[in-house]
Every structure is written in structure tokens, then in C-alpha cells.
Automatic annotation (TrEMBL):
Organism listed in the record: Paenibacillus artemisiicola
Xref: Gene3D superfamilies: MetI-like
Residue stretches spanning the membrane: 12-39, 72-94, 106-126, 155-183, 204-226, 261-282
UniProt protein name: Sugar ABC transporter permease
Domain ABC transmembrane type-1 as annotated: residue spans: 68-282
PANTHER family with a match to the protein in the record: ABC TRANSPORTER PERMEASE PROTEIN, INNER MEMBRANE ABC TRANSPORTER PERMEASE PROTEIN YCJO
Main location: membrane
Keyword Transmembrane helix tagged: yes
Family statement: Belongs to the binding-protein-dependent transport system permease family.
Signal sequence annotation: none
Length: 294
């Protein structure tokens, strides 16, 4: 057994298939997208090399700018609303003793539901005539309170953000709760003896000890909101009037509806670079804080 473990081919047998899959499903698509972004191409006829023309066009594209802004809105909502909500619910569940398993299962259920089903479900809830939300609003304030949630440019994005949050916060709650429950009981007991109760215990004990998990949540939130696609595609397809357009839906429309595969590939490359830069900045900030604390 020890001889086998000392053999470098043993490790290669496990590492090489992983590297091949990584190259096939990540390195190759990114490389091909960048190459296609250098051409004007409809996917059928001959490609025409235009250099960085597609990328220069991207910088002047107002629709792409609006789509990127909507992605930033997704990100801001996730950081300002979802994560504080996750922390509050996870801390509350962590303090209960009875039915804790039920609460964990209840908040996690939306995560295992298909995004398509979630989008259709909320589409039914938002329906103007028979949707539960408008029915409740009519009972409170009459017909004037009913709203066209997915057809109003001022409300459509909020409606999608709520649906997206409902599906995804459960995963982060379970992740955060696991970190909270992993805090040694002696630490919490000592804090209470010293008079740190409620908010002081949360601020001085809980949050610093779960900081690595908070960073993972932050990283996943940023990368996920920059790549969001399916729930927007199903609920509004970027409408009305491009008010909910995001980079991924715009990429699909340009590449496969307008048959501008070169420009669509340039949008995909831009998404990759933006996500890489933002996640890299977060990792750099987290690393500098660790060095400062150390």
C-alpha cells in the first residue's frame, strides 16, 4: 500500500482525468469564445476577421450597459438584502432547540426545486387577474392596488429579485447555520458569562468566527448574480422594454436570435472577464484582511 502511494502514477491516475475534464468544459470553451469574438460570423457563412471590432462595439452598446447594470442590481440586492436575511434566519435557527431539523429542511426545500418551476410558480403568483398577490392587494385596497408585476418596467426587476431570493437563500442559510453550529459551546458560554448577550454576542463572537463562510457566501453571490440567466429568461425574457435584460439573456439573443455569433461570443468573454475581475478583487480584499489580522 505504501509503495503504491509513493508511486507518482497513482496520483496522475486521479489528477489527469480531472484536468482533461477541466480543459474540455472550461479552458476550451473560453478559448473558442475569445477566438470567435474576433470574427463577424452568423454561424453559417464564412467568418470575417475583424480583430477587436466586436469588443469595441461592446463598449458603445447601450443595451449591454443596461444589462450589466441589471446584473449589478442583482448583486446589490443579494448583498444588501439576501445575505443579512440569511444571517438573521441562520442565527435564529441556531438558537432554537426543538424542531431545528424541520426548520433547516423547510428553508432548503426551494433550493431543490427546478428554477423553471420556481419561475412558473411566481409567474402564476404575479398574474394580474388571478394571481394570489393581486388578489390579496384587492382585498386590502381595491382594484387600484393590483399591479402588472411582470409587465411594468418599474416592478418587473423587483418581482424577479424576490423570486430569485426565495429560491437561493435556503442554500446560504444551511451553509451559514452549519458554521454557527460548529462554534464551540464553551466560547458562547464564556461570552454570556462576560455579559455578551444578543447582538453583542453575534457581533463579537458569531460573525468573526464564521467569517470564512461569509466570504464564501459573498463570493458565490457575486459570481452567481453576474451569471444569472434561467429565471430571467423564463419569467420575462429580458422585458418589458429590456428593463430586466441581463448579460446572459442579451448574449443569447444576439448570438442565437440575431445570428451574430461573433458578437455574442464577445459578450460571453466580457462576462467571464468581469466575473474574474470582481471575484479576484474579493479574494484580494479577503487576503489583505487576513494579513492585517495576522
Amino acid at each position: 500500500m505504501n509503495k503504491t502511494l509513493r508511486n507518482p502514477w497513482t496520483y496522475a491516475a486521479f489528477v489527469i482525468p480531472t484536468l482533461l475534464l477541466y480543459a474540455l468544459f472550461f479552458v476550451y470553451p473560453v478559448t473558442v469564445s475569445f477566438v470567435y469574438g474576433l470574427f463577424r460570423w452568423d454561424g453559417i457563412s464564412e467568418r470575417t476577421f475583424i480583430g477587436l471590432g466586436n469588443f469595441k462595439r461592446l463598449l458603445r452598446d447601450a443595451t449591454f450597459g443596461q444589462a450589466f447594470g441589471n446584473n449589478l442590481l442583482f448583486m446589490a440586492f443579494s448583498l444588501a438584502v439576501n445575505i443579512p436575511l440569511v444571517l438573521a434566519v441562520a442565527i435564529a435557527i441556531g438558537k432554537v432547540r426543538r424542531l431545528r431539523g424541520f426548520y433547516k429542511s423547510a428553508v432548503f426545500v426551494p433550493v431543490v426545486i427546478s428554477t423553471a418551476i420556481v419561475a412558473i410558480l411566481f409567474g402564476v403568483l404575479y398574474d394580474y387577474d388571478s394571481g394570489l398577490i393581486n388578489q390579496a392587494l384587492r382585498l386590502i385596497g381595491g382594484e387600484s392596488w393590483a399591479r402588472e408585476w411582470l409587465a411594468d418596467p418599474r416592478l418587473a426587476m423587483l418581482a424577479i429579485l424576490i423570486a430569485n431570493a426565495w429560491q437561493n437563500v435556503g442554500f446560504f442559510i444551511v451553509l451559514c447555520l452549519a458554521a454557527i453550529l460548529n462554534i464551540p459551546g464553551e466560547v458562547s458560554d464564556a461570552a454570556r458569562i462576560d455579559g455578551a448577550n444578543g447582538w453583542r454576542e453575534t457581533r463579537l463572537i458569531t460573525l468573526p468566527l464564521i467569517r470564512p463562510v461569509l466570504f464564501v457566501m459573498l463570493l458565490l453571490s457575486v459570481s452567481g448574480t453576474l451569471k444569472v440567466l434561467d429565471i430571467v429568461q423564463i419569467m420575462t425574457n429580458g422585458g418589458p422594454f429590456q428593463s430586466t435584460e441581463v448579460m446572459s439573456t442579451y448574449m443569447l439573443k444576439v448570438g442565437f436570435r440575431s445570428l451574430e455569433l461573433g458578437y455574442g461570443s464577445a459578450i460571453g468573454v466580457a462576462m467571464f472577464v468581469i466575473t474574474l475581475v470582481m471575484t479576484g478583487m474579493l479574494q484580494r480584499i479577503a487576503g489583505s484582511e487576513e494579513v492585517r489580522e495576522g
